[in-house]
Amino acid sequence: MEIQTFPSEIVFFDLETTVPNKTGQHFHILEFGAIIVCPRKLEELDSFSTLIQPKDISVVSLRSSRSDGITRAKVRDAPSFEDVAEKIYGLLHGRIWAGHNIRRFDCVRIKEAFAEIGKAAPEPSGIIDSLGLLSDKFGKRAGNMKMASLAAYFGLGVQKHRSLDDVRMNLEVLKHCATVLFLESTLPNQLEAQWQNSSKIMTRSRSNKQIAPRAMPYSKGGSLGKMTQNVKNILSKAQGNQALQNLIKHSHSLLR
Locate the Exonuclease domain: which residues (predicted)? Predict the structure, then answer.
């Protein structure tokens, strides 16, 4: 049976996995979550999430450090990846894939999981990796490029590290960043200069526990304080990327 594809639709997806702590161990998918997004309005059209029981349930921790984390008890009665593979394939295949760090992590894990059950992996019609995109265009004004940091920067709440919650947060972060980039594109000289001449604040480094200066764009509470460099580049590159054009168009609608 031929599966219908939707090459212009965007599917944001995220995986929660085990973390290998020994040589030779590999990642095991514990949860899959995805939302299908209309590229014209960036509205959520459909969603799906499921916990997944790995073949060896002992690789899952008995307890989680997070209040809503995934534990062995939670996945004990969950379906296997093979049980949900057809559903996941139908959601992903032929759509534009979007997510944070998906090129290096989630895409690789999906291919590994399908190979493990001897089935063809889904293929995207395009990929939007918000980690690479925002690293290049938005910069490290949030401190680093982690989703939790970007979400906190825009006041979008705390990252839950659950697949469906994280993909919805990912979409909102992109909307906010696109709006900021659109604002900068209207007055690049003033707003780019404001970011480049940003004040310094002192932050504590986790690695050496010493106080170190870090550039921050504006004082707390400045609604136009979240600005970036290289605005002209993203606008020119967006001409060949329909998904980026849609993000910028959505930003414009938010300002009306």
Answer: 9-183
The predicted model gives 38-54 an average pLDDT of 95
pLDDT greater at residue 212 or residue 155 = 155
Residue with tokens 């295949």: 93
DSSP state of 142: T
Name the residues annotated as catalytic. Answer: 161
Query: How many Å apart are CA 81 and CA 113, to the nearest integer?
Result: 7
Residue 247: CA atoms inside 13 Å, Cβ hemisphere, count? 29
Q: In whole angstroms, what is the distance from residue 35 CA to residue 164 CA?
A: 7
What structural domains and CATH numbers belong to the chain?
10-188 (3.30.420.10)
Which secondary-structure segment (H or E) carries 141?
Answer: none
Distances in Å between the alpha carbon of 24 and those of 30, 52, 56, 58, 110? Answer: 19, 22, 15, 16, 19
The pLDDT score that the predictor gives to residue 21 is 82
